[in-house]
Specification:
10 strands, 10 helices, alpha/beta, six-stranded parallel sheet, about 35% helix
C-alpha cells in the first residue's frame, strides 16, 4: 500500500478539520494520538472509525504489535509519510499513529447511583482537567460530570493529560446545569464543594455517600449556586505561605480524603 504524502487526500483533510472544536462537536468524534493512547482505546473496546500510521510506528516492537492489532480489528487504516504525520500530530515528537474515535454520550447521572460523583465547574485549563480525570479514575470515582463553561473534554491537551483514563470511567458534559444539580439532589446525593473560604475541613465531611464533590475554576472556584446548595463547603488547610493551590492538586487532595474516609478497599 502506497504511503499518502498529499495534504489534499480526503481523509487527511478530514483530520485537519477535526482540529476545530466546532467541527469535532458536529461530527461527534475526537482524535487520539500515540501508541499508549491507542492501546488503551483498543483494550477498552472504544469505538474507533479510522487510523493513520506512518513508518515511524514500525520502528519499535510495541508499535508493530499495535499496528497488527489495528489491522486485526478491521479498522480502516491509512498509511502516510512521516512528514505528513508530523503535520497532523499535536505532539512535538509524533509516535507515528493517530485515530479518530467516536464519542460515547453518557447520561448526566450514571446508572446504579455511584457512591462518589465528581462535578467540575468552569475549569479552564485543559491540562488541569485531564489531570483531574486521571486522578478521579485512580480514586475510583463513579462518574465525572462537566458543567457548562468547563474547558472542552476533547481538547487535545485535555486528552493527553488523562493518560487514557477517559476510557475507564464515565465522563459527561452536562448540557443543563440546573437539571443536573436537581437530578443529583433527587437521587439522594449530598453536595460537598471545594471552597477556599469554606467552613469545614475535608476530615469533617461524611464521605460514606452518596456524595457529589464539586471543584471549580482556577480563578473563581465553584459557582455561587453550588456553594449555596452545598451540604459542606470544604476548605483545604494550608498552614504555609502559599495563597492557593493548583485546581488539579486541590481536587486530588479532596478525592483522596474521600478514598481514605469511605469504605473503598485499599490494597
Amino acid at each position: 500500500m502506497d504511503l499518502v504524502a498529499s495534504s489534499q487526500h480526503p481523509k487527511v483533510k478530514y483530520i485537519h478539520r477535526l482540529s476545530r472544536r466546532r467541527f469535532r462537536d458536529r461530527e461527534g468524534v475526537f482524535i487520539i494520538e500515540g501508541v499508549r493512547f491507542l492501546e488503551e482505546a483498543l483494550d477498552a473496546g472504544w469505538p474507533l472509525e479510522l487510523a493513520l500510521f506512518s513508518p515511524r510506528l514500525e520502528t519499535s516492537g510495541r508499535g508493530r504489535l499495535l499496528l497488527s492489532r489495528l489491522a486485526d480489528s478491521a479498522l480502516p487504516l491509512l498509511p502516510v509519510t512521516d512528514g505528513l504525520m508530523a503535520g497532523l500530530a499535536g505532539t512535538e515528537t509524533p509516535q507515528g499513529v493517530l485515530a479518530v474515535a467516536r464519542r460515547r454520550e453518557g447520561q448526566s447521572l450514571a446508572p446504579g447511583r455511584p457512591n462518589l460523583v465528581l462535578l467540575v465547574d468552569g475549569l479552564q485549563d485543559p491540562g488541569n482537567l485531564g489531570t483531574i480525570i486521571r486522578t478521579a479514575d485512580a480514586a475510583a470515582v463513579g462518574q465525572v460530570i462537566l458543567l457548562k463553561g468547563t474547558v472542552d473534554l476533547y481538547n487535545p491537551k485535555t486528552l493527553r493529560a488523562t493518560m487514557g483514563s477517559l476510557f475507564h470511567l464515565p465522563v459527561v458534559q452536562a448540557p443543563d446545569r440546573e437539571e443536573t444539580l436537581a437530578g443529583l439532589e433527587a437521587a439522594g446525593y449530598q453536595l460537598a464543594v471545594g471552597d477556599p473560604s469554606g467552613d469545614v475541613y475535608p476530615r469533617e465531611v461524611d464521605f460514606s455517600g452518596p456524595i457529589a464533590l464539586a471543584v471549580g475554576s482556577e480563578a473563581g472556584g465553584a459557582g455561587p449556586d453550588l456553594r449555596q446548595r452545598a451540604r459542606w463547603r470544604v476548605r483545604i488547610p494550608m498552614p504555609g505561605r502559599a495563597e492557593s493551590l493548583n485546581a488539579a492538586v486541590a481536587a486530588g487532595i479532596l478525592l483522596y480524603e474521600a478514598v481514605r474516609r469511605s469504605h473503598v478497599s485499599i490494597r
